[in-house]
Structure formats: structure tokens, C-alpha cells
Amino acid sequence: MKRSLMARMRLHQGAPESQSSQKWDIVQIRNLSAGGLSFNYTQEVALGTILEFNIMLPSRPDPIHCLGKVCRVDKGSGERIETTKRITIYGIAVRFLE
CATH no. for residue 68? Predict the structure, then answer.
């Protein structure tokens, strides 16, 4: 998809307690297909991590809820400078599970 889309994302609640998260983050989707999606993120996410998404589409009033498994992490796919500190950007690719 060439259109810029946003999604809410968090670690899946079915994950072990030490890995699950109540906090939703907003991410901008770089690529979206029937099989998965990719996005940039400011934290590294381990391969195999299950993520939960609510993808917002302009043509739908309700978000699309789905789960995905991290299948690729591109370390340092970019940098962002905030005040005096550099933040590494990770490119995260996810394969949909449902």
C-alpha cells in the first residue's frame, strides 16, 4: 500500500507476563500487504515476539485488529536526533498470524 497508515501496537497480552505490555504505541506503517507489515520503531524488538495491532484505515470507522510475529529487525535503519541525543530507528517486519 502506498498510502500512509497509522496503527496502535503493543506486545501481545498472551505473551509471558514479563514480556506483555498494557501500553499501546502509535507507529506509522511503511508497508502493508496481506501477509504482514513493516514499520519503524525506536526500540529493538526481538525476533519471534508476538505483537498486537489496531490498524486504522480511512475507509473504516473501526480499526482492524490483528496479531503478528516479528520476522525481521533491521538495526539502525535510520537515526533521529532529538536535542543532543541520537535515537536509533529499527525497521521491524511482522508476519500476520491472524
Answer: 2.40.10.220
Give the Cα separation of 33 and 55 in Å (integer).
12
**What pairs with residue 20 in β-bridges?**
none
Number of domains in the chain: 1
Phi, psi of 8 (to 5 degrees): -90, 140
d(CA 67, CA 77): 24
The whole model's pTM is what?
Answer: 0.79
> How far apart are alpha carbons 89 and 81 in whole angstroms?
10
Range of the domain at 68: 5-96
Centre a 10 Å sphere on the Cβ of residue 42 and count the other Cβ atoms it contains. 12
Q: Could you give the CA distance from residue 19 to residue 14 in angstroms, rounded to a whole number?
A: 9
| Chain segment 1-32, per-residue pLDDT in tens | 556 789 999 998 665 544 555 789 999 999 99
